Amino acid sequence: MNTFDASAWIGRWPFSFCDAHTAKSLQAHLRQHGIGAALVSPLDAVFAPEPGPANRDLLRQTRGLKGLEPVPVINPALANWWEEVAVCGADERVRAVRLLPNYHGYRLSLRAVDELVEELAVRGWRLIVQMQLIDARHEFHALNLKPVPAEALAMLLRRHPALDVLASGMLRPDILKLAPRYSRLLCDLSFAEWFDTIENLTAKVSVRQLAFASHTPLLITAAARAKLDTSTLSAAQKRAVASGNLARWWGR
Q1: With a threshold of 0.85, does the pTM exceed it?
Q2: SS3 assignment, position 62
Q3: In terms of residue numbers, what domain contains 214?
């Protein structure tokens, strides 16, 4: 089954022994698990003073590697966010940016977030909001971080009703709460866990609003595959979750 991954990362995570992938090693790893394409962002942008160097390294490493779609990280709390968008926009492969509100210390109600959304609309780019990177119970003890509140995302969607957003790392209860209310919201499955996860979600959520995501290397790639492969969805529904929904959102 052709699989398009909504969340994969290169670089190093400083608080665990998970793999520190380069773009080439990530591509090889994903292919071993039957994942032919992925949206890829840089872990080195998470704790850096500003994400620019990590974004440029992402663009450099992924160039020429089939299936790796680079998604830079933008921090709208910094005064130079628009310059970073312009720099990344010089690369014709960039079609989306990823926000990390809880790690970069701002709320989605920040005025600059609305300004960024307007800039993305002009460019025809997509927006990914990373709701969490690590289960809050497993965060490094010195970090007091909680997932982005679902209601904060809902408020952003209400302010920008024409905005197509990919919510990455959203918990199952929040998917069940928001997706039926916002038809333009696409939710990846990286942090959605329950018995028969996908069947449980599709009882209330349209299959069109769900997308496969491995969240490699922060989560186990094979576990993400199993979540999809063992589901009882029809073949057509599985294809939609595995790749079709994300490909439509991405504009492929």
Answers
A1: yes
A2: helix
A3: 4-250
